[in-house]
Design brief:
It contains seven helices and six strands; from the N terminus they run H-H-E-H-E-H-E-H-H-E-E-E-H. By secondary structure, the protein is α/β, with parallel strands linked by helices. It has a six-stranded mixed beta sheet with strand order 3-2-1-4-6-5. The radius of gyration is 17 Å and the shape is globular.
């Protein structure tokens, strides 16, 4: 990242702390005002991504939506993205892996399209690098992300507004405190869809090879089907 390091003042921290008690739409509006509209958002177009996309575009209709295409996404994810693009008139900025997907797995010695032996390296090359490239080019002052504390233990203590030293901007999570029920109720109230794979048991949806995303049936951790059989918990974008 080439962006200059920002000076975080006590007033900045007081503002960030006040966001914790705001409704999600108020929070986004406050961030848009304070950061002079220099906000982007990221979306994986995953299970319940329609919630934050709807909230954000009601406040900032043309907000830039960073979408990372790893080359391994489910076809249903691309279809879901296009459906939401049309419905919400989304301003999607797609960033793609620099690699040819099939060639990458072969060169990395993975040996099979449906399984990754080194998921950390694969995420770094095909997901993290495109996102870092996006943030370096767009240089936002704030980044809206859709993570929630209830999703997993690794997200349980995420702040509504944290400073991201990695991306040198505010990482803002408007629905961090929302429960799964609140998500469901919001989708129902606004007639918004879940990702089509949710009905097949996928509660968190990333890349399609089996080692990256599986359906879950035990009703536990929402991200329990991600990187199954490994110690990996996060892709690294949420820092």
């Amino acid at each position: 990242m080439t962006q200059a390091v920002a000076l975080i003042t006590p007033a900045d921290r007081d503002w960030a702390a006040r966001l914790e008690s705001m409704r999600a739409d108020e929070l986004i509006g406050s961030a848009a005002d304070r950061l002079e509209g220099k906000l982007v958002m990221s979306s994986s177009f995953g299970a319940d991504s329609a919630v934050l996309l709807h909230l954000a575009t009601r406040v900032l209709p043309r907000i830039k939506v960073i979408f990372v295409d790893t080359g391994y996404l489910f076809s249903e994810t691309h279809a879901f993205m296009e459906a939401l693009r049309r419905r919400l008139d989304l301003n999607i900025w797609a960033y793609r892996t620099r690699n040819d997907p099939a060639a990458y797995l072969a060169q990395a010695g993975e040996g099979a399209w449906t399984w990754r032996n080194d998921v950390e390296r694969c995420c770094a090359a095909n997901k993290n690098e495109p996102f870092e490239r996006a943030m370096g080019e767009l240089r936002p002052l704030g980044w809206l992300r859709g993570i929630r504390r209830q999703q997993s233990e690794t997200r349980a203590r995420v702040g509504v507004c944290d400073w991201s030293g990695r991306y040198n901007c505010w990482a803002i999570s408007p629905i961090a405190a929302w429960t799964r029920k609140q998500v469901h109720d919001y989708l129902k109230e606004h007639d918004l869809p879940y990702h089509p794979l949710v009905e097949k048991g996928y509660t968190s949806i990333g890349c399609s090879p089996e080692s990256c995303t599986r359906p879950i049936t035990d009703g536990g951790d929402e991200r329990g089907g991600r990187w199954a059989g490994t110690d990996k918990k996060e892709c690294g974008l949420n820092i």
